[in-house]
Specification:
- The protein has about 525 residues and is an alpha/beta fold.
- Helix content is about 40%, strand content about 10%.
- It has 20 helices and 16 strands.
Length: about 525
Amino acid sequence: MKNHQFLSSSYSNSNRRNFGRLQRKFSIGIGLILSFYAIFYIHKVLKISLLPYPIADNESQDSYKSVNITFLDKSISDESKKLENHIKNSSTHQPTIQCEPEETQVSSNSKNHHQEKYITYLPHSGFTNQRISLINGIILAWYTNRTLIVPPIILGKTLPWKRELYLQHLLAEFKSGKIVSETCRYLSDEEDDLSCQQNQPSYTLLPWDYLFDMEFVRNNIRMINRPDFSFKRLISSLGIVDPETEIHYIQNKDRYYPQFFDDSSHIPVNLVPFKQALHLCELRSRPEKLVHMFSIFGSSRLRLRFSENLKFRKSILDKMLFSHPALVNISKSIIHDLGGLASFIGVHLRMGDLTFQQNKTETIERIVEALHEVTNIDQDNLRQSSSINCRFPKNDSIRSSTSKIIYIATDAQLNDTSLSPIFNTYPCILTLLNFTSTLESLNNIVNPIDNSPLKEFLLPMIDLLVVAHSKHFVGTPGSTFSGFAANIHNILVPNGENLLVKLDGSSFLTNKKKNKKKGRKAIRKKLDSSMRVGKIL
């Protein structure tokens, strides 16, 4: 009996211990599940990153280790928090219908403010990337029959792509710079004056009309220039009382979201690199007063198929060109010194940052090969300007093949030894530094809004205009600067060539002459078999 009681007691104690273990394991499991759910809820539902802001594709997590995690709590303004709440209530839908463009609005100051509908976006990245976003915004405004709220150009400082809230928050910090002439000119000490100027903002904001001819655009859509990036000021100026019902947001879940289509029957299953398709008709049917997009950067962001839409985009590219008098006149003077329109070879070589810096050796090798092909296209059509002195070799046979004037627009330092393959092969290479006296008139040009000097911001634009006037243009792969130069080159020099080299040794060559000469046929045979023909941009 005692043995039975002992065994029964031992068995009961063992059960209690096992049950206790199971309870603890169950509690731990439930705790882990709740923890994972909490992390998922914070990151996905509330869209709050565990880092201060999302990491872009070309950025590493290590660069954010020194950032205080309290960024979200202390730095995001009330205005940005309101925007976040509004975005949460916004959604997009898959396109279900197909429609043709309606009659679009034209510029008019008599529109009823309460009936007018608007569309806007947020810019980022460099100047030429912002231009692409503007072109996309113009097309979307034209198609949806909305007034385009145009953000200012950010010149100088480059802001990379970020997700909705973070992009808005960072842009809100961009304001007109201090007036350099007012804050620094009264300092008597030369060293203090230099320090003052160096500490001035490294950027400035300008309306697009200041640099570009926007007449065609304004004849086809109504535009309002946005002076800054204040969300509060934006909705107030548009008379928006309830943002949650009066604003529709097109979210950027990543930099490739979404892609716009005008024909639902030609939306591919695989949108790579884009993640979701949005039909333009869906966008036009939105009833909200304001359609607020975020990033719309990318030449392939709008996949247009209807001829009317393609024609409108081409008209923008052809007519929305530089019109600032200083840019036009200075570039004309430099082009004249180079021998005139289509009298030299133009090269854009980007190698100062990001992947362009990493690939600079390969890029230079490919450009040297491309120059070898281009310089043999037509020996006699590129003449030597009498005002240019070059380091010509004494050997006449070498001189005949290398005496072409080559103008290089580049962000590289000219003493960079990696440039040697170009300078050692071609004796007549010129850059903007050869025309410093011509550039002196830029010293007096200031931003009419904040009085900031504009010279440093305008120099790349002059570079772009000069290379675009060349007979043959060689660009850097993946550069939107090269794409813009090639677009202008197509307009100005219809008989020239655009050669955009690729790092695998092949090339994109645009031949715009219907009647090809023997020299050009020979060049095509020499190029790599994987060469593809097509317009750049």
